[in-house]
Amino acid sequence: MALDRRSFLLGTGxxxxxxxxxAKKATPESSGATGGxxxxxxxxxxxxxxxxxxxxxxxxxxxxxxxxAAAWEKKDSANTPQERAQVMSNxxxxxxxxxxxxxxxxxxxxxxxxxxxxxxxxxEWIFDAAPSDLFVIRSAGNTAFDDAxxxxxxxxxxxxxxxxxxxxxxxxxxxxxxxxxxxxTPLLTExxxxxxxxxxxxxxxxxxxxxxASYAAKQLTARxxxxxxxxxxxxxxxxxxxxxxxxxxxxxx
Length: 253
What we know:
- With 253 residues, the protein is an alpha/beta fold.
- The chain has one domain: Carbonic anhydrase (Beta-carbonic Anhydrase, Chain A).
- It contains 12 helices and 5 strands.
- It has helices spanning 5-10, 12-16, 57-75, 81-88, 100-103, 123-126, 146-157, 173-179, 186-191, 193-198, 205-223, 225-232, and strands at 111-115, 134-138, 163-169, 237-243, 250-252.
- It is globular.
């Protein structure tokens, strides 16, 4: 389907492509079954994809990370994998979980997180967030690559996400690779180009990683009118975070 730019920016193009989640209240039919089946009668009338949004998205991220970091530290005193799993299982106890019948009708994440593809990072864990809370974009080195920016434009236009966090992390292999010389493949060399543009010779890894995340955050408004307009109009906040794998804590940069 061909879409002109005006239709896309007005949202009609997004609707035509099926990208805009329906914000109406879900009305699942009762199956008559018992034992955990969600029925229409059991869903509060005001539940919809937006009903779990906090009033302050940044504070919600900070609070969720505090809960995670406490569990992350506590698990290290456990002696077995089973005991560590039990400690971590205490997360997600007080989150706002929507029925599948509601979130299948659409999504309304309250924060976007651009972060690294590193396997030690999982934003839903790090911020003790429920499914449908976060709109997550990941690539090695958390750079502002074209598809990432386009995805965030979708988040702004269609999902009305009020917050973007660009999050670097300790021991980032992509940043470390960018500090070195040759890389084994042309695509890896291309991957670290924006990281090399963000860092300075002689920086330690933590300083370089924070500089890279800050540079990526600045690229969002520099390269996207949609994101810049949302920030200028007070509809979007962009912040930079740094996740320390050892402590489990995210600090603001």
